């Protein structure tokens, strides 16, 4: 019987790691990683503070808020890059399923951007920031979901 191979993506707002498990008892192997700093479009830069509007009569003025915070825009851009690489790794073949562990807000962005192919392969997700956890200790964090 062929072992089930899992692509594991671990991410937060600034860094992502791509890992692989080739069956029960095999543990995790790091395939690659990426950083938000690697992509020019991730860092949002505004030329100045949000604008202000002056009322036509009198001295009333109103601040004009941005529709999305800089932090969220950066998270969305980085999530797109993480999902693009995830799609490329899965399209190469060899992975039967996908697992994602990410900081809660990043996990929301990743869930929202999943393509149909990624949704079909997604076995589970975990709302934990595990980016800084050493490889050898990662297996313990997935104990309740899957056996590596």
Descriptive overview:
This protein is 30% helix and 25% strand. It contains four helices and seven strands. The two termini are 17 Å apart. Strands 3-2-1-6-7 form a five-stranded mixed β-sheet. It has a two-stranded antiparallel sheet with strand order 4-5. β4 and β5 form a beta hairpin. 22% of the residues are buried. It is elongated. It is α/β, with parallel strands linked by helices.
Give the secondary structure arrangement, pairings included.
Elements: E1 6-11, E2 15-21, E3 29-35, E4 52-54, E5 61-63, H1 70-91, E6 97-102, H2 104-113, H3 116-121, E7 122-126, H4 135-141
Parallel strand pairs: 1-6, 6-7
Antiparallel strand pairs: 1-2, 2-3, 4-5
Helix pairs in contact: 1-2
Give the structural class. Answer: alpha/beta
- Overall pLDDT level: 86
Largest sheet: 5 strands, mixed
Number of helices: 4
Rg, Å, rounded: 20 Å
Strand order of the largest sheet: 3-2-1-6-7
- Kindly, what is the distance between the CA atoms of the first and last residues, rounded to a whole number of angstroms? 17 Å
Proportion in helices:
25-40%
Low-pLDDT regions: none
What pattern of helices and strands is seen along the backbone?
EEEEEHEHHEH
Overall, the morphology is elongated
Taken as a percent bin, the fraction of beta residues is 25-35%
Number of strands: 7
Question: How would you briefly describe this protein structure?
Answer:
With 148 residues, the protein is of the alpha/beta class. Helices cover 30% and strands 25% of the residues.
Structural key phrases:
148 residues, alpha/beta, two-stranded antiparallel ribbon
